[in-house]
């Protein structure tokens, strides 16, 4: 059992059971006398790892057959370019600006076309999800872009935007496999796995097959075309083999807990412990509007800057790791990803209660 709780936004905590299994298999995977890291990606042994990971993910998320599952590299940030390169026909797209990562995606897409902001929550530093029930989207817009869970601001969409029949692309990096999703409500879901599914360096993209075509922007490199990866079963080049192996284990761990419905229930219980305390505390308060709150990233502050820094410092000495908020919002952020045990959240809340009771004077 570990002695600390890691609240990092990513790379982030992984299930102890998964790490232990990987450790057990480190030197000799299934009698091969090799580590998974050392196995050829063209071997039958690795082929069965990637096939099983994809099949398990399809089952867990209930991914329809007319969607491709791709294992890609370059982080979520490379998708910010690949999406316009692959989907822009009219060189126009609409973005729902809900934070830092969408802003980055916009900046990248502007290299390729005209980007419109269909809705934004920038006026209140991204503390809420704007109303997206009746967006004005240009008739010739190529797609609508959103980010399901805003990792930095601690907000999350609780209803799907009406994309008015346009292609809907959703960055799910920080809510991936945290709850059930209706995949066919979207045309593309994608996310870096380092928040909730495994080690940094792999992106999983789930894309409606008929959107993957030869027709891409002129000059799009081979590696940046979805078709290249779809045609070769994500093995056009050497994929991040070890990451795929770990994701496979994380998926099996979620299955063993009871699947995504159960995962959601656990995540709601964990988040409620912290939000309930924030709502009644006189020292701490949550930063996201109640109806926009994230289950995965809880952002909060204490009454003064002095208290914020005293809290982060004291927390670090009490087994609460990486609780400091992102520089663009300040305060604190507790990331409660799937692998954060409920004991971790209880420990945090208990520590906050003591800190508040002592008026921020915490014995070191
Ligand atoms: C972390 C994160 C990113 C950036 O991921 P990289 O893999 O570092 O490029 C993008 N979007 C969201 C929602 C994130 O949480």
What does this structure look like?
A hairpin with a 4-residue loop joins strand 6 (149-150) and strand 7 (155-156). Strands 2-10-9-8-5-3-4 form a 7-stranded mixed sheet. A 3-stranded antiparallel sheet has the order 11-12-14. The chain has a two-stranded parallel sheet with strand order 1-13. The chain has 364 residues and is α/β, with parallel strands linked by helices. Helices cover 34% and strands 17% of the residues. The chain starts with a strand and ends in a 7-residue tail after the last helix. Helix 2 (44-61) crosses helix 6 (241-257). It has helices spanning 16-25, 44-61, 75-87, 100-109, 226-231, 241-257, 259-280, 305-316, 342-357; strands at 5-6, 67-72, 92-97, 114-120, 143-147, 149-150, 155-156, 167-171, 188-192, 203-208, 284-286, 297-302, 320-321, 332-335. Bound molecules: pyridoxal-5'-phosphate. Residues 10, 75-77, 101, 147, 151, 171, 173-174, 192, 195 line the site of pyridoxal-5'-phosphate. Pyridoxal-5'-phosphate binds at residues 10, 75-77, 101, 147, 151, 171, 173-174, 192, 195.
């Amino acid at each position: 059992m570990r002695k600390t709780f890691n609240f990092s936004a990513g790379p982030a905590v992984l299930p102890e059971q998964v790490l232990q299994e990987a450790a057990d298999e480190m030197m000799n995977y299934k009698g091969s006398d090799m580590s998974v890291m050392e196995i050829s990606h063209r071997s039958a042994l690795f082929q069965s790892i990637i096939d099983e990971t994809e099949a398990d993910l399809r089952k867990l998320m209930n991914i329809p057959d007319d969607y491709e599952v791709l294992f890609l590299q370059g982080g979520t940030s490379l998708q910010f370019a690949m999406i316009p390169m692959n989907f822009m026909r009219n060189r126009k797209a609409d973005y729902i600006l809900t934070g830092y990562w969408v802003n980055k995606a916009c900046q990248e897409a502007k290299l390729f076309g005209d980007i419109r902001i269909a809705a934004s929550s920038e006026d209140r530093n991204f503390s809420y999800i704007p109303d997206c029930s009746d967006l004005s989207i240009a008739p010739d817009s190529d797609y609508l872009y959103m980010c399901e869970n805003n990792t930095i601001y601690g907000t999350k969409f609780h209803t799907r935007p009406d994309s008015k029949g346009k292609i809907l692309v959703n960055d799910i990096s920080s809510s991936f496999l945290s709850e059930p999703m209706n995949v066919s409500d979207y045309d593309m879901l994608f996310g870096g796995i380092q928040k909730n599914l495994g080690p940094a360096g792999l992106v999983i993209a789930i894309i409606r097959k008929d959107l993957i075509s030869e027709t891409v922007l002129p000059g799009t490199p081979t590696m940046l075309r979805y078709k290249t990866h779809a045609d070769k079963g994500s093995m056009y080049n050497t994929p991040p083999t070890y990451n795929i192996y770990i994701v496979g284990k994380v998926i099996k761990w979620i299955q063993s807990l009871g699947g995504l419905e159960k995962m959601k229930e656990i995540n709601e219980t964990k988040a409620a412990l912290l939000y309930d305390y924030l709502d009644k505390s006189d020292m701490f308060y949550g930063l996201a509007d109640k109806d926009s709150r994230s289950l995965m990233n809880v952002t909060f502050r204490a009454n003064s800057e002095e208290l914020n820094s005293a809290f982060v410092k004291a927390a670090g000495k009490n087994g609460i790791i990486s609780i400091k908020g992102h520089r663009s919002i300040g305060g604190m952020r507790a990331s409660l990803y799937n692998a954060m045990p409920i004991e971790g959240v209880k420990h945090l809340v208990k520590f906050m209660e003591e800190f508040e009771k002592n008026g921020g004077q915490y014995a070191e």
